[in-house]
């Protein structure tokens, strides 16, 4: 051993709380340890909630039988579990996942926990166009979800354009969004009062967000949308790291901030709009899931995977309660998520967290 | 690749040519020419609103020129991908904001962003650069602490560590001593000096451009001093040549006496007028 190598022994520094995971020869990924554990725990909880969802109902089915049906094995409970409960549960799962991701992305870009698609006008845009179409006699459930996507994306585009001032101003984005939400809600009300009584009632139920009567036909489009957008979501999970810094620092680090933000918002808006088109605006899921997930993982940015899992848990569990709480009357799932979400929103505002970087609170 | 040379013959990778900068309709900097000498500490000074921070922002492509250009290695900044610029030029804004609850080592590691890919989020090179940056700024022991909980001086060192981890030849610092007490100011400026010092093997140190409020600190720490007033350069050169009573009067409108600094011998500006202690004896 030569004397030259007697340099002081260094402890190499790695970002605290992260693990380096090697994939293949060149791939190296930073994984937040606590977020990984939380994701694993949430997966277990989600599986448990899903089994409970399939078992509980008008008639109780043993968990083992429910699992057999899901695995495609012959079972006497095929009809109840496989035909009635499973498709509706899958829709809830997908809708919750989409809202969870959408909320996380939009809150990250706006750096504000209030910036969720149901607060900044996306859900309201979807509602306005859908209800408008309904009152003008278009009630086909194969067309309405697509209209709702168009409405949501159009509303978000307007909000984004108005909030643009040589760059996206985060607070402006939220405030203008809230303004648009109010305006669009009154447009919806106008349609409702002008429209036929029966149509208005139908529209009202849709607007609360309901999984009632949803099945494989509704699960397919949103499932495909999530699958096709998966690469974009994976990109977004990494992009969140730099967008949560201030504008100047992010630019100095070589991030094309304008494009990255637009990409993140666009992805969030599309996911939120597709979810709204599938189940109606299920309020507060996109608001709650990312914030709770972040508190659980204690990461510097909103954890995308945990947020998605938590969104799914919330929607499936809320729909389970909505089906059984006042049985035989089924509540729309949105009533329950709103009952939990509204107090939380008030608490958020009372705590006075306006919005620093990273969608804090 | 063309290299610009400064007046006294030093090479310059970063330069501004008849650079005009404006916010909306208000022109803040007028046709400014500046060649940043390599391997030196360049300090820009001037009164409030003279355009010094604005100029620094333009050198770091945070502000697009309204006219003229900023050249990096002879190519206009606007023609270089921002990620490529980030591999050569590091920049610390005046008031950077960290994501809430982020730890020190996580923040410093984010300085590696321009060198990473989606599938390569942590290399040995990243680890070396981050470890070294944290050692140089003496924040290694703080690695696991949340940035929110640090004192002002510690936090500033962490931010500098992040910019250092970026591993760039050029480093732009926008008023790095603001909000710091005098001991921490000196600490940060000493660090800046060490960054520009040549390494033991003779390789050139980093090129640092910084904006400072305090003229005496500027005179003490700069190799190259740039004095600005109303969006124009009034004088530039070695502090000993540039800082005179006449310049202080012209730039700051202040009557002053310039004496040699008792410690370093660099020019020390002592304000003389308009206030002077009254002659002995009770007054009024």
From TrEMBL, chain A:
TM segments?
35-54, 89-107, 119-138, 144-164, 173-192, 219-237, 262-282, 302-321, 333-350
Q: How does it sit in the membrane?
A: Multi-pass membrane protein
What's in the keyword line of the UniProt record?
Answer: Cell membrane, Membrane, Transmembrane, Transmembrane helix, Transport
Gene3D superfamilies of this UniProt entry? ABC transporter involved in vitamin B12 uptake, BtuC
Q: Mind listing the GO biological process terms from this record?
A: siderophore-iron import into cell
Q: Which residues form a coiled coil?
A: none
Which top-level group of life is the source organism from?
Answer: Bacteria
Q: Name where it's found.
A: Cell membrane
Gene Ontology molecular functions: transmembrane transporter activity
Annotated GO CC locations = plasma membrane
Would the keyword Transport be found if you checked this record's keyword annotation? yes
InterPro entries named among the record's database cross-references: ABC_BtuC-like, ABC_transptr_permease_BtuC
Phosphoprotein is among the record's keywords: no
* Principal location: membrane
Which Pfam family is an annotated match for this chain, by its short name? FecCD
Q: Which family does it belong to?
A: Belongs to the binding-protein-dependent transport system permease family. FecCD subfamily.
According to UniProt, the name of this protein is: Transport system permease protein
Source species of the chain:
Streptomyces pratensis (strain ATCC 33331 / IAF-45CD)
From TrEMBL, chain B:
Localization in the cell? Cell membrane
**Family annotation (PROSITE patterns):** ABC_TRANSPORTER_1 (PS00211), ABC_TRANSPORTER_2 (PS50893)
Q: Which UniProt keywords apply?
A: ATP-binding, Cell membrane, Ion transport, Iron, Iron transport, Membrane, Nucleotide-binding, Transport
Membrane topology value: Peripheral membrane protein
Instruction: Cite the InterPro entries for this sequence.
Output: AAA+_ATPase, ABC_transporter-like_ATP-bd, ABC_transporter-like_CS, P-loop_NTPase, Siderophore_ABC-ATPase
Give the ABC transporter domain ranges: 14-255
- One Pfam entry name: ABC_tran
Any one GO molecular-function label of the UniProt entry: ATP binding
Protein name according to UniProt? ABC transporter ATP-binding protein
Q: Which organism is it from?
A: [Kitasatospora] papulosa
């Amino acid at each position: 051993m030569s004397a030259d190598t007697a340099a002081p022994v260094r402890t190499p520094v790695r970002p605290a709380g992260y693990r380096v995971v090697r994939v293949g020869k060149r791939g190296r990924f930073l994984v937040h340890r606590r977020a990984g554990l939380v994701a694993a725990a949430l997966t277990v909880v989600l599986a448990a909630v899903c089994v409970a969802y399939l078992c509980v109902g008008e008639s109780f089915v043993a968990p083992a039988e429910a699992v057999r049906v899901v695995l495609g094995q012959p079972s006497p409970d095929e009809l109840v579990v496989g035909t009635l409960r499973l498709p509706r549960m899958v829709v809830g799962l997908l809708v919750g996942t989409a809202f969870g991701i959408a909320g996380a992305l939009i809150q990250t870009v706006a750096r504000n926990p209030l910036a969720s698609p149901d607060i900044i006008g996306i859900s309201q845009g979807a509602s306005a166009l859908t209800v408008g179409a309904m009152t003008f006699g278009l009630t086909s459930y194969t067309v309405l979800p697509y209209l709702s996507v168009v409405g949501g994306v159009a509303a978000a585009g307007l909000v984004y354009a108005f909030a643009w001032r040589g760059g996206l101003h985060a607070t402006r984005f939220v405030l203008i969004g809230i303004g648009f939400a109010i305006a669009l809600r009154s447009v919806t009300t106008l349609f409702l009062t002008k429209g036929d009584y029966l149509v208005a009632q139908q529209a009202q139920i849709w607007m609360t967000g309901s999984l009632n009567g949803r099945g494989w036909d509704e699960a397919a489009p949103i499932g495909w949308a999530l699958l096709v957008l998966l690469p974009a979501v994976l990109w977004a999970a990494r992009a969140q790291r730099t967008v949560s810094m201030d504008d100047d620092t992010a630019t100095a680090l070589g991030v094309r901030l304008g494009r990255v933000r637009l990409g993140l918002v666009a992805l969030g808006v599309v996911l939120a709009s597709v979810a709204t088109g599938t189940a109606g605006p299920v309020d507060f899921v996109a608001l709650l899931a990312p914030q709770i997930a972040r508190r659980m993982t204690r990461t510097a940015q909103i954890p995308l995977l945990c947020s998605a899992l938590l969104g799914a848990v919330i929607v499936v569990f809320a729909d389970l309660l909505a089906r059984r709480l006042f049985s035989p009357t089924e509540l729309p799932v949105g009533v329950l998520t709103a009952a939990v979400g509204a107090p939380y929103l008030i608490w958020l505002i009372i705590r006075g967290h306006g919005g620093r970087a990273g969608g804090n609170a | 690749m063309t290299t610009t040379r400064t007046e006294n013959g030093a090479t310059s990778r970063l330069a501004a040519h008849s650079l005009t900068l404006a916010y909306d309709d208000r022109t803040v900097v007028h046709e400014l020419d500046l060649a940043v000498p390599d391997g030196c500490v360049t300090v820009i000074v001037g009164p409030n609103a003279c355009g010094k921070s604005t100029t620094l922002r333009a050198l770091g492509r945070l502000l697009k020129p309204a006219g003229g250009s900023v050249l990096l290695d002879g190519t206009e900044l606007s023609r270089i991908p921002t990620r490529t610029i980030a591999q050569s030029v590091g920049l610390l804004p005046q008031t950077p904001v960290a994501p809430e609850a982020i730890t020190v080592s996580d923040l410093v590691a984010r300085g590696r962003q321009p060198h990473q890919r989606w599938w390569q989020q942590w290399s040995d090179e990243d680890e070396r650069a981050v470890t070294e940056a944290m050692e140089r700024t003496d924040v290694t022991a703080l690695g696991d602490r949340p940035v929110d909980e640090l004192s002002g001086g510690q936090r500033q060192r962490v931010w500098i560590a992040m910019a250092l981890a970026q591993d760039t030849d050029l480093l732009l610092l926008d008023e790095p001593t603001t909000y710091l007490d005098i001991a921490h100011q000196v600490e940060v400026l000493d660090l800046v000096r060490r960054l520009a010092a040549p390494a033991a093997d003779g390789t050139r140190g980093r090129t640092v451009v910084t904006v400072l409020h305090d003229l005496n600190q500027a005179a003490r720490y700069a190799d190259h001093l740039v004095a600005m007033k109303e969006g124009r350069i009034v004088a530039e050169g070695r502090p000993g040549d540039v800082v005179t009573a006449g310049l202080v009067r012209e730039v700051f409108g202040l009557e002053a006496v310039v004496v040699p600094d008792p410690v370093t011998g660099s020019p020390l500006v002592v304000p003389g007028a308009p206030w002077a202690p009254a002659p002995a004896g009770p007054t009024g």
